[in-house]
Amino acid sequence: MSVHDLPAVNATLNGLSAVFLTLGFIFIKRGNKIAHRNCMITAFGTSVIFLACYLTYHTTVRTVTHFVDPAWFRPIYLTILLTHTLLAVVIVPLILMTLNRARKQNFEAHKKVARWTWPLWLYVSVTGVVIYLLLYQIFPQK
Predict the structure, then answer these.
(1) 117 is in which domain, residue-wise?
(2) Structural domains of the chain, count
(3) What phi and psi, each to the nearest 5 degrees, are found at residue 60?
(4) Maximum pairwise Cα distance, the chain
(5) What is the per-residue pLDDT for 65?
(6) pLDDT digit string, tens, across residues 87-135
(7) What kind and span of H or E run contains 118?
């Protein structure tokens, strides 16, 4: 495996994070707090590994792939990329706050922030996969 394989690894990690976030949501709705906790911790771990791989890729490769073709799809791609990037920055402190409140067993405060954290985190995870598919699989850029 080389550094050029990391975009696919990153997409896989984002996809796994989305799966664990979804399972965690299902488990808490069913009242299974232990399974919920385990899924959310795994989603967090997967996201941390993603961040390490993402930073490794971008500090090593030092090039940015620009979405050019097809031109008609570029505004759609850039909208997805912009919302993904902005929310990826916003979500980090929310995730840390949510996990910290759960760790302290302050579950009422945890639930209040988790109502915002979960959908934003899921959106960032899913759009990470979508961006990879658009940029490297569906419309590979030269």
Answers:
(1) 3-138
(2) 1
(3) -85, -50
(4) 50
(5) 83
(6) 999 999 999 999 999 999 999 999 999 999 999 999 999 999 999 999 9
(7) helix 107-132
